[in-house]
Automatic annotation (TrEMBL):
<keyword id="KW-0482">Metalloprotease</keyword>
<comment type="similarity">
    <text>Belongs to the peptidase M16 family.</text>
</comment>
<dbReference type="GO" id="GO:0005739">
    <property type="term" value="C:mitochondrion"/>
</dbReference>
<dbReference type="InterPro" id="IPR032632">
    <property type="entry name" value="Peptidase_M16_M"/>
</dbReference>
<dbReference type="GO" id="GO:0005782">
    <property type="term" value="C:peroxisomal matrix"/>
</dbReference>
<dbReference type="InterPro" id="IPR054734">
    <property type="entry name" value="PqqF-like_C_4"/>
</dbReference>
<keyword id="KW-0645">Protease</keyword>
<protein>
    <submittedName>
        <fullName>Insulin-degrading enzyme</fullName>
    </submittedName>
</protein>
<dbReference type="InterPro" id="IPR011249">
    <property type="entry name" value="Metalloenz_LuxS/M16"/>
</dbReference>
<dbReference type="GO" id="GO:0050435">
    <property type="term" value="P:amyloid-beta metabolic process"/>
</dbReference>
<dbReference type="Pfam" id="PF16187">
    <property type="entry name" value="Peptidase_M16_M"/>
</dbReference>
<dbReference type="GO" id="GO:0046872">
    <property type="term" value="F:metal ion binding"/>
</dbReference>
<feature type="domain" description="Coenzyme PQQ synthesis protein F-like C-terminal lobe">
    <location>
        <begin position="365"/>
        <end position="463"/>
    </location>
</feature>
<dbReference type="GO" id="GO:0005829">
    <property type="term" value="C:cytosol"/>
</dbReference>
<dbReference type="Pfam" id="PF22456">
    <property type="entry name" value="PqqF-like_C_4"/>
</dbReference>
<dbReference type="GO" id="GO:0042447">
    <property type="term" value="P:hormone catabolic process"/>
</dbReference>
<dbReference type="GO" id="GO:0051603">
    <property type="term" value="P:proteolysis involved in protein catabolic process"/>
</dbReference>
Length: 543
């Protein structure tokens, strides 16, 4: 027990300096007091004891005084090489005269587009460097998708030792394949950032594949694809909805089937093809100047041109994938079985409209209003399952309302309960007082205007605008200003036009993931009401 005024310090704050205790401990650090434990497969057959509980084979013996006296220095016990990433310059750069409140486009060429923002909030000797390397070859088919993944996994594997030293000095990087190419970020102390970035880009452009590591990483990738079947039903539901709604998306089965065709020569040829034509879009944000940012971008371009002979993409190749548009009054149901878990999963998606200031706020305010009642009704009262979620879903510039549930109950029952809940929300909003409605607006506004607590969080918000190609860096202020003009009638109209069971512009997709032991499941059905929880009646759904 600690009194309240000592809770933070507890046993960690040492108030009395006791040099005698320090000397006593140091005096015990002698060879005759040491116990050495060595674990290795090489000791198999050389043990003489068995541990009682786990059956572990081991041997115990004393180290003779003679061995201690004749012990030589071991060359492997030495200080590491000098860490070139340890920062020495922690100067906070003064704000430039032309510093902007939001990221500014400081370079726009056929090869690259550079957004820059000098930090004016956190004033730390740090920066975030984000790059998207856009290539049409990265996701053209499952084979190319696999090769892009393996290329970057092998590249990261080869950088492990180098990146470890950087990590110790407060520098981290992330490198991954995307449906549009490659994403690279370098975050941390800005003093030596350019050294790590240059090493990564050089390695990327001159990479030589190690055959043994290729086989090991390819095998690990196949295991990860196979492990997908063991993921939770609600995760499967989200995965299948993405496949259904995205213009181009490859399934796990398609990736597995194509993986056998990935050979070392084919991967080498692919890397050259991938780097042959690129468009780079970047955001450099933090304790750096515009001139330094332009220099970093030029270094990236020059390195790729010199080593990989990279050329710009054609403007017509800079095309993003689209979302499937659902027809008015359309309802589509997709069913799959989870082969491992004995729970069902469901994701119900009501596609509303393209993202815009007005549509964003209609959707977010509606989600704000139904969030607590949804959890209270479907999870607490009806006890449908531990995982019950409602909220906006956004992808490829299109958005909508989604419900995600994982439950022992069948998907068509979950479907009916979501529809029943939505129907009750119409009257709930109609009967809501103006004071309660304004509280929802205020709660959403406070959440949206909450300032990022870290440089990396602020950078992530800006980067989201860039990769979505919406570039609305002042989104929070603009949308909250619009939010405050909304009325209760606006939200009721939003519901009646897009979400109600008879809404003229209702667009619905349901993904039903069946439990392992379910042979089949109807799409819709009638269910007896359980009086103990006073279930609201489900509206009749189209057969």
């Amino acid at each position: 027990y600690y009194p309240i005024e000592e809770v933070l310090a507890a046993e960690y704050l040492l108030e009395e300096f006791r040099p005698d205790l320090i000397e006593m401990v140091l005096d015990k650090l002698r060879p005759e007091n040491v116990r050495v434990a060595i674990v290795s497969k090489s000791f198999e057959g050389r043990t003489d004891r068995t541990e009682d509980w786990y059956g572990t084979q081991y041997k115990q013996e004393a180290i003779s005084d003679e061995k201690w006296q004749n012990a030589d220095l071991n060359g492997k016990f030495k200080l590491p090489m000098k860490n070139e990433f340890i920062p020495t310059n922690f100067e906070i750069l003064p704000l430039e005269k032309d510093a902007t409140q939001y990221p500014a486009l400081v370079k726009d060429t056929a090869m690259s587009k550079l957004w820059f923002k000098q930090d004016d909030k956190f004033f730390l000797p740090k920066a975030c460097l984000n790059f998207e390397f856009f290539s049409p070859f990265a996701y053209v088919d499952p084979l190319h998708c696999n090769m892009a993944y393996l290329y970057l996994e092998l590249l990261k594997d080869s950088l492990n030792e180098y990146a470890y030293a950087a990590e110790l000095a407060g520098l981290n990087y992330d490198l991954q394949n995307t449906i549009y190419g490659m994403y690279l970020s370098v975050k941390g102390y800005n003093d030596k950032q350019h050294i790590l970035l240059k090493k990564i880009i050089e390695k990327m452009a001159t990479f030589e594949i190690d055959e043994k590591r290729f086989e090991i990483i390819k095998e690990a990738y196949m295991r990860s694809l196979n492990n997908f079947r063991a993921e939770q039903p609600h995760q499967h539901a989200m995965y299948y909805l993405r496949l259904l709604m995205t213009e181009v998306a490859w399934t796990k089965d398609e990736l597995k089937e194509a993986l056998d065709d990935v050979t070392l020569p084919r991967l080498k040829a692919f890397i050259a093809q991938l780097l042959s034509r690129l468009h780079i879009e970047a955001l450099l944000h933090g304790n750096i100047t515009k001139q330094a940012a332009l220099g970093i971008m030029q270094m990236v371009e020059d390195t790729l041109i010199e080593h990989a002979h990279t050329k710009p993409l054609l403007p017509s190749q800079l095309v993003r994938y689209r979302e499937v548009q659902l027809p008015d009054r359309g309802w589509f149901v997709y069913q799959q079985r989870n082969e491992v878990h004995n729970n069902c999963g469901i994701e119900i998606y009501y596609q509303t409209d393209m993202q815009s200031t007005s549509e964003n706020m209609f959707l977010e305010l509606f989600c704000q209003i139904i969030s607590e009642p949804c959890f209270n009704t479907l999870r607490t009262k009806e006890q449908l399952g531990y995982i019950v979620f409602s909220g906006p879903r956004r992808a490829n510039g299109i958005q909508g309302l989604r419900f995600i549930i994982q439950s022992e109950k069948p998907p068509h029952y979950l479907e009916s309960r979501v529809e029943a809940f939505l129907k009750t929300m119409e009257k709930c909003i109609e009967d809501m007082t103006e004071e309660a409605f304004q509280k929802h607006i205020q709660a959403l506004a406070i959440r949206r205007l909450d300032k990022p607590k870290k440089l990396s969080a602020e950078c992530a918000k800006y980067w989201g605008e860039i990769i979505s190609q919406q570039y609305n860096f002042d989104r929070d202020n603009v949308e909250v200003a619009y939010l405050k003009t909304l009325t209760k009638d606006d939200i009721i109209q939003f519901y009646k036009v897009l979400l109600a069971i008879d809404a003229p512009r209702r667009h619905k997709v349901s993904v039903h993931v069946l439990a392992r032991e379910m042979d089949s499941c109807p799409v819709v059905g009638e269910f007896p009401c359980q009086n103990d929880v006073n279930l609201a009646p489900a509206p009749p759904l189209p057969q």
